[in-house]
């Protein structure tokens, strides 16, 4: 059986657009001689639809478009993800399902059995789980049709099993000859590699081909890398879709022998566009894709960025240019009373190197007007954080005014290190519609900037060396440096990863790293005390195992201390 792996980028709720894209890819697969085309999880409605599935009209439209799709591609069987109606025991009325469409009809439906409720997933809130799995017979194959999480509970691969059932094992006990999995598996650093190892383990355990078709694209905070795969029964990758791009690749199960045959000597070279599993290049590609899709799927065409002359705004601007094109990016420098001439010059050079429009709007006069208005109330108090934050909020106001006037989305530029400890200003530098690098620790910001300069391969480099070399500073008071308030970032980021991503206690971090316990405890207190800021931040793009936002849900008003 020649199977087409149709890796597409659907938009949540764009039923007609998604249906037309699926039909177009199916026609292309049919023209290439495919016997079956497989599309990602919930590809008809987009994933994740979240509370949209609670709207009866959304579910009805889903059913209607599924029938239309079946009629549009009668010549080639396809497997497509959609929301189905069920009569659930717990009151849920929908399921996350896969349909086999053939001959203009819905021939088979299999619903997802394992519903994740951890990290960014909350499928138990919406969907009724399938109570049983059933083989689908097509041509010479008996397909074990599974949906995303259904493959993430293998007792021979997963050390921390979350479910008592193993859908894959159940299906192969029924005589399956091939495993097909349709997924909406979000990107995180290192995940593509571990996912491929898991799929290889299935192929070797069951001596059967494995087809994994993953969604690609950005939907809100999540970025889906695609990286769809087909493996033969010996665990060799025989087809590989591109990472972070739509793609259509083919895999013929007949070319590599059945389970009763000896080891196959046939071989086809994996695609030269194989996914790059090196974290930093993959992360950069994820940020570009996530930014592009967030901006466009939200109905914007252009973005604007406050360019401080610092490294965070430089990286954000470079990502925006790669995502949207230089003509759709505006850089705005907003020098204030403590801004250095070098910072303004660096921002100007960056904009020139990236070939984006650059404007300068001074905040000094506005800041002075604020201080004049507050003079009586501030009388007798020392200058401090309040005056510093006024400068940041003036800048945020100016950017939002430009956004309103020109309908251009503001990209905020704060990194994960700053957001973790609250080294950012509400309604100031946190203002914006998308926090592009809010899941990128400061030390990785530097590495990604080097990738930008390597990619562009121009002299001088896109991001000026002066920006990379300068000591980080907010320039909100004379001679300010980030290290006045924070440990060096190479120390801070080690603490933050242990506390946020690995759920270690302060003592565990101190014992493992040799960092003074007092310092670790100070940092963890800062993390805990700034939850209120993070819950008011713009959505950010998730690339680590634990990002702020929907996947990390801590109370604001709480007194727990470890």
What distinguishing features does this structure have?
six-stranded mixed β-sheet; alpha/beta; Nitrilase/N-carbamoyl-D-aminoacid amidohydrolase; 562 residues
The tally of beta strands, per DSSP, is 19
**CATH architecture field of the largest domain:** 4-Layer Sandwich
> What do we call the CATH topology of the largest domain?
Nitrilase/N-carbamoyl-D-aminoacid amidohydrolase
Overall radius of gyration? 26 Å
Q: How does this structure look, described?
A:
- Helix content is 36%, strand content 17%.
- With 562 residues, the protein is an alpha/beta fold.
- It has 2 domains: 2-269, 4-Layer Sandwich (Nitrilase/N-carbamoyl-D-aminoacid amidohydrolase); 281-482, Rossmann fold, CATH 3.40.50.620.
- The strands form 4 sheets. Strands 5-4-3-2-1-14 form a 6-stranded mixed β-sheet. The chain has a 6-stranded mixed β-sheet with strand order 6-7-8-9-12-13, with helices on one face. Strands 17-16-15-18-19 form a 5-stranded parallel β-sheet, with helices on both faces.
- Helix 1 (15-31) links the parallel strand 1 (2-7) and strand 2.
- Helix 6 packs across helix 12 (442-456) and helix 14 packs across helix 15 (506-513).
- The protein is elongated and about 80 Å long.
- The termini are far apart.
- Mean pLDDT is 92; it is low at 259-277.
């Amino acid at each position: 059986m020649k199977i087409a792996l149709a890796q597409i980028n659907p938009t949540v709720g764009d039923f007609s657009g998604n249906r037309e894209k699926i039909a177009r890819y199916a026609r292309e697969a049919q023209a290439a001689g495919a016997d079956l085309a497989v599309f990602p999880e919930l590809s008809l409605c987009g994933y994740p639809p979240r509370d949209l599935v609670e709207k009866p009209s959304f579910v009805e439209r889903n059913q209607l478009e599924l029938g239309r799709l079946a009629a549009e591609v009668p010549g080639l069987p396809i497997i497509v993800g959609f929301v189905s109606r069920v009569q659930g025991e717990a009151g849920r009325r929908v399921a996350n399902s896969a349909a086999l469409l053939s001959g203009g009809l819905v021939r088979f439906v299999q619903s997802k059995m394992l519903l994740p409720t951890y990290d960014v997933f909350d499928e138990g809130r919406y969907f009724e789980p399938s109570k049983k799995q059933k083989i689908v017979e097509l041509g010479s194959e008996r397909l074990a049709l599974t949906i995303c999480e259904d493959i993430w509970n293998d007792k021979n691969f997963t050390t921390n099993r979350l479910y008592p059932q193993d859908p894959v094992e159940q299906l192969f006990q029924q005589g399956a000859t091939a495993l097909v999995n349709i997924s909406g598996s979000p990107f995180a650093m290192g995940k593509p590699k571990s996912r491929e190892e898991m799929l290889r383990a299935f192929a070797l355990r069951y001596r059967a081909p494995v087809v994994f078709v993953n969604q690609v694209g950005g939907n809100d905070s999540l970025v889906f890398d695609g990286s769809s795969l087909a493996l033969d029964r010996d665990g060799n990758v025989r087809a590989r879709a591109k990472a972070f791009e739509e793609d259509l690749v083919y895999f013929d199960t007949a070319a590599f022998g059945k389970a009763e045959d000896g080891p196959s000597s046939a071989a086809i070279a994996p695609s030269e566009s194989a996914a790059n599993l090196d974290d930093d290049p993959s992360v950069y590609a994820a940020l570009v894709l996530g930014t592009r899709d967030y901006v466009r799927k939200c109905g914007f065409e252009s973005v604007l960025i406050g360019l401080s002359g610092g490294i965070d705004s430089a990286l954000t601007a470079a990502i925006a240019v790669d995502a949207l094109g230089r003509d759709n990016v505006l850089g705005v420098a907003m020098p204030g009373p403590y801004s250095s001439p070098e910072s303004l010059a660096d921002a100007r050079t960056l904009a020139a190197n990236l070939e984006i429009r650059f404007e300068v709007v001074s905040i000094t006069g506005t800041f002075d007007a604020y201080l004049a208005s507050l003079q009586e109330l501030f009388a007798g108090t020392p200058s401090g954080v309040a005056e510093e934050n006024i400068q940041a909020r003036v800048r945020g106001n100016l950017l939002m005014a430009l956004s309103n006037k020109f309908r251009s989305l503001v990209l905020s530029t704060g990194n994960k290190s700053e957001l973790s400890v609250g080294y950012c200003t509400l309604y100031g530098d946190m203002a914006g519609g998308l926090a592009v690098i809010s899941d990128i620790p400061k030390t990785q910001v530097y590495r990604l900037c080097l990738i930008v300069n390597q990619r562009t391969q121009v002299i001088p480099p896109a991001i000026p060396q002066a920006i990379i070399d300068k000591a980080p500073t907010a320039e909100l008071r004379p001679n300010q440096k980030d290290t006045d308030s924070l440990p060096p970032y190479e120390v801070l980021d080690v603490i933050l990863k242990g506390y946020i991503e690995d759920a270690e206690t302060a003592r565990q971090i101190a014992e493992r790293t040799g960092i003074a316990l007092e310092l670790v405890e100070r940092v963890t207190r800062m993390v805990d005390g700034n939850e209120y800021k993070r819950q008011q931040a713009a959505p950010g793009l998730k690339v680590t195992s634990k990002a702020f936002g929907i996947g990390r849900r801590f109370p604001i008003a709480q007194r727990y201390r470890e």
